[in-house]
Write a structure and sequence with these properties.
heterodimer; A: about 65% helix; globular; B: Four Helix Bundle (Hemerythrin (Met), subunit A); 2 domains; 7 helices; about 75% helix
């Protein structure tokens, strides 16, 4: 093996491990932060007992879940039941392969791009991968052999199909402005002006559909506890449940990272190093998710479908139309 | 390297295709079909057709198969339920039609009808421009008429589906 190829492989592996580790860390800290922030918004204290200000609470939760009995229902379809949590987790993680999180840096004489891989169909890749995320939930719902799980799974697939459409269309405006599907190009084009200024409507549609896509409150109908127990993960216990829990947070981080890349200028920003800017913007988006959760009540199912098909979809088409018109007029 | 990858992926594709046919449980059948779709997407990437690969996953694995699974799960078909409304003596005509289909496919492949243009579009040329851009350019210039006809066809199909589903609308 020659030296160049070896260096390339080592750099790629290090980047993958780094990104993977960072996401896992962020998931763990998000679990604590969400409980803390929501508690303070509702004038409570949240976890306080384990460690200073409950900082070790996620670790305590993890240990608790690890030592719980792992129950697989007798009439469940075992293979799918075991496979489903992983299927929910993987798409969220592999989307990060195309998200640029920093500028080029020089390490030990090698030029390193701070993105795992820059492919010319990055935008399509993101949607191809995120559209596979449904299967984890659907499989979990069906394999559990429980009517609440099944209903949760069906609801979730209907919801995700509906909102995937607007999610994709809301980003088309940005792709039109950039004239490239590569996420690195999208970020580079935002050096002077962030896309949120040019595409405010697109950002609004994207964020609304993103919340629905990751099944977060106020769109968390698939796991509406008052009507469906816990939805698709009713029958899950122990670490399998923990994996669904982590998948939800990983998905949240992924859609926030896409929002940062497409609308908030990626790693661009003054004074601070690019990676720090990226993390700051990502944290801002994640805070927004928590804020929304503790603010809005859950939508009813028909309201959800109306919002998706009769309001957001025409609006996103309008956004594309306006963007196209302005681009033609400006030449 | 690519050849080995091709053989591995092609084996997965064919095996999951065969499993799809012989699987009794419709849900597992649908999952095998998804596996087939995804492996075909990998084959497209090996052919340097990244755009087609991404669209393959978005459209087939991400949208159509989800709807398939959705319907199968809603109906919750019994595993042991045999096909009740099979036509009598279905097997022999089915085999004959199958042979006929494969003959037609074979003839078309042999006759070079499906090869299209490749003199100008070498791999290097396509990669210099990017898959997506080239396909877009060709669709909106040279193949505009077939493209528009396809869109009308899909539109008619959508209206037809709504008409069938919502008679009293």
């Amino acid at each position: 093996m020659n030296k160049e190829l070896f260096a390339y492989l080592v750099i790629a592996c290090v980047k993958i491990l780094l990104v993977f580790g960072t996401i896992q860390l962020m998931v763990i800290s998000m679990i604590w932060l969400e409980r803390k922030i929501m508690a303070h918004m509702q004038v409570r204290l949240g976890p306080m007992r384990v460690g200073p200000h409950g900082l070790l609470q996620p670790i305590a939760d993890g240990i608790k879940l690890l030592f719980k009995e792992d129950i697989i229902p007798e009439k469940a379809s075992k293979l799918l039941f075991v496979l489903a949590p992983a299927m929910a987790m993987i798409p969220a993680l592999i989307t990060f392969a195309v998200i640029p999180f920093g500028d080029k840096v020089k390490i030990l004489g090698y030029n390193v791009d701070l993105v795992i891989t820059d492919i010319n169909i990055g935008f399509l890749y993101v949607f191809a991968v995120s559209s596979l995320g449904i299967y984890g939930i659907v499989m979990a719902g069906w394999a559990s052999n429980n009517k609440y799980s099944l209903l949760g799974g069906i609801r979730s697939s209907a919801q995700m199909i509906s909102y995937e459409l607007t999610l994709g269309l809301s980003l088309i405006g940005v792709v039109m402005l950039t004239e490239s599907l590569s996420l690195v190009d999208v970020v580079n084009a935002q050096g002077k002006l962030w896309n949120i200024v040019l595409q405010p409507l697109g950002f609004f549609i994207y964020f609304t559909s993103a919340i629905a896509e990751v099944n977060r409150c106020p769109f968390d109908l698939p796991e509406a506890e008052s009507e469906l127990v816990a939805g698709y993960h009713t029958e899950y216990s122990s670490m399998k449940f923990a994996m669904f829990f982590m998948a939800e947070y990983a998905n949240m981080i992924t859609v926030s990272a896409i929002a940062v890349t497409f609308f908030l200028g990626g790693w661009h920003g003054p004074f601070l190093p690019p990676v720090v800017w990226f993390m700051l913007k990502l944290s801002g988006c994640l805070f927004f998710f928590i804020w929304i959760r503790s603010t809005f009540p859950r939508l009813r199912y028909d309201q959800l479908m109306h919002l998706g098909w009769k309001f957001l979809l025409p609006l996103s088409l309008l956004n594309i139309l306006i963007t196209g018109l302005i681009m033609v007029i400006k030449g | 390297m690519e050849v080995y990858l091709f053989y591995i992926v092609a084996t997965i594709t064919v095996v999951s295709g065969v499993y799809l046919i012989f699987e009794k449980n419709p849900v597992f059948g649908a999952l095998y079909l998804i596996q087939t779709m995804v492996s075909i997407a990998v084959l497209y990437i090996l052919l340097e057709a990244q755009f087609v690969a991404a669209v393959q996953i978005i459209v087939y694995a991400g949208a159509i198969m989800v709807l398939f699974l959705f319907v199968i799960m809603l109906l919750n078909l019994d595993i042991k339920e045999e096909a009740k409304n099979a036509l009598p003596f279905q097997r022999i005509p089915a085999i004959l039609m199958g042979i006929a289909l494969f003959t037609v496919i074979g003839i078309v492949i042999k006759s070079k009808l499906m090869q299209g243009k490749h003199d100008q579009y070498t791999t290097a040329y396509v990669n210099s421009m990017g898959n997506t851009k080239l396909i877009g350019n060709l669709l909106f210039t040279e193949y505009l008429l077939p493209f528009e006809i396809t869109s009308i066809l899909l539109f008619v199909a959508a209206i037809g589906a709504i008409m069938l589903a919502k008679r009293k609308l």
